[in-house]
Amino acid sequence: MKKVELLAPAGDFEKLKIAIEYGADAVYAGVSHFSLRCHSGKEFDYETFKEAVDYAHKKGVKVYATVNSFPFENQLPIVESHIKTLKEIGVDAMIVSTLGVIKKAKEIAPDIDLHLSTQANALNSWDYEAYRDLGIKRIIAARETTLKDLIKIKEKVPDVEIEIFVHGAMCFAYSGRCLLSAVQFGRNPNKGSCANDCRYPYVLYAENPETGTMFKLEEYEDGTYIMNAKDLCLINHIPEILESGVVDSVKIEGRTKAPYYVAVITKAYRDAIDEYYKWKMENGKWKINVEKYMNEILTTKNRGLTDAYLVKRPYERNDTQNLKTSLTYGDYQVSGIVNEDGLTFMCKYKTYPGDELEILLPKNVTISECENEIGKIYQKDGKWYLKLYKIVTANGKELEAVHSGNLNPIKLPFKLPYLTFLRKKVDFSPNGV
């Protein structure tokens, strides 16, 4: 049985490692401003990107390089040089958007696969056939495409791989083609420098052009988030996506998201996919514990969740926007992340002796209960926890507490896997923490 690929974001080298350790089959990342996530592209230079690609390949994970911005004429020589360098680095595929970049990439690097960005908004079998004939191996479906359409498209164009987004931020504009931040800030979203203007609160006014009178319209006291789209979440549709047999890769958005987001979301979808295949093989049917995975997803920051347009047409939806706030906090705060030595962690939130910290482990690792003078690791209600009796730095100094920003590694009572997260349940309500 051919299994679907889980594709996760790698905004920097640490996030690439986290995506791999938490279950990704492939990652996508960018270098320079030719990526549509300009900020995350700056986290890599060519040297570190080569190192990251080699690291991923040693782990059996593919790397897809984003070259999906829309270059101006004076940038073409730089784009050409960029493609040559990516060929030398040895990426597994390049994600591209424009006809010219497709043509040039095929000339320079004919052996590297080309994936068509969702920005190209391919919506039908004619589009898929045309791009296939130009050398595209995989098409990242337009966000507006339905699963029913993808099934029909695959029947007509079976030799093109299909990738879909299953989780992450949604753009207010059609297929992400927005110029709002270019108007307000001079930052071009189609060149990777979106200022996320759709996430801001706006105050609405109504003007009478005959009298010049202007009335302020207030729906909410602090302004209205009239363009703020909820985040995509298709975890409950994983069975029908896989059952369709037409999707080759499921993709998580989030190169600019926090490392914790990458870990939690990657692991949730990895476990859901694996559970589907396990049930399918053992029972001839499918089943997944959606509630368990959704509870994990809700520990991350989000803008509200929607299943968007994969199973319904856009005009049938009225629940894809969050007009009240641009961000909802998850119910957990990251307290720390375990260092490469496995014996210490870096603090990410205030931690006191006696705090109970839940342990979020990478995939396919096991730990045991243990206790010493520093603290103990134990299991409760099917989850792993760490309790520190005292807080001791790697150089032996004992602290009353440790806070985010403290750069001293903090000792663990026993060794934990690299990139394990420690988290604490908190209350983000006005009267909470």
From TrEMBL:
InterPro entries to which the protein is assigned, alphabetical: Peptidase_U32 (IPR001539), RibuloseP-bd_barrel (IPR011060), RNA/ubiquinone_mod_enzymes (IPR051454)
Pfam families assigned to the protein according to its UniProt record, in alphabetical order: Peptidase_U32
Superkingdom of source: Bacteria
Assigned keywords, A-Z: Hydrolase, Protease
Transmembrane segments: none
Chain segments annotated as coiled-coil in the UniProt record: none
Family: Belongs to the peptidase U32 family.
UniProt-recorded name of the protein: U32 family peptidase
Annotated organism of origin: Caminibacter mediatlanticus TB-2
